[in-house]
């Protein structure tokens, strides 16, 4: 999930910082970013809410990060 890494880095967060904000383990963030595993839907929703982006942007279906009004 390269978008998660991109959003995290643009926000100046470490993997452990994002993990703490989402109440998950840092290993999960690392595995998403390397493509070994993928977050489930509830976590994807939390990530999208945290970064204020649409799910389509987060999963690569759109290049427009903002949610429709």
Question: Topology of this structure?
Answer:
Blueprint: H1 2-10, H2 15-22, H3 26-34, H4 41-51, H5 55-58
How many helical stretches?
5
- Based on secondary structure, the structural category is mainly alpha
The helical percent reads: 55-70%
CATH class: Mainly Alpha
Number of domains: 1
Give the low-confidence spans.
none
Described by strand count, sense and barrel closure, the largest sheet is: none
Roughly what is the average pLDDT, rounded to an integer? 92
The CATH superfamily is identified as lambda repressor-like DNA-binding domains
Cα shape: globular
Q: What is the CATH fold-level name? A: 434 Repressor (Amino-terminal Domain)
Number of strands: 0
Strand content range: under 5%
- Could you give the distance between the termini? 25 Å
Tell me the Rg in angstroms. Answer: 11 Å
Structural overview:
The chain is mostly helical. The protein has a single domain, classed as Orthogonal Bundle (434 Repressor (Amino-terminal Domain)), CATH 1.10.260. The chain has 5 helices and no strands. The longest helix is centred in the middle third of the chain and has 11 residues, at 41-51. It is globular. The chain starts with a helix and ends in an 11-residue tail after the last helix.
């Amino acid at each position: 999930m390269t978008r998660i890494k991109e959003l995290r880095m643009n926000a100046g967060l470490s993997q452990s910082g994002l993990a703490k904000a989402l109440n998950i383990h840092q290993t999960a963030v690392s595995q998403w970013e390397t493509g070994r595993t993928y977050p489930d839907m509830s976590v994807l929703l939390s990530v999208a809410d945290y970064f204020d982006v649409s799910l389509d942007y987060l999963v690569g279906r759109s290049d427009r990060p903002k949610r429709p009004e």
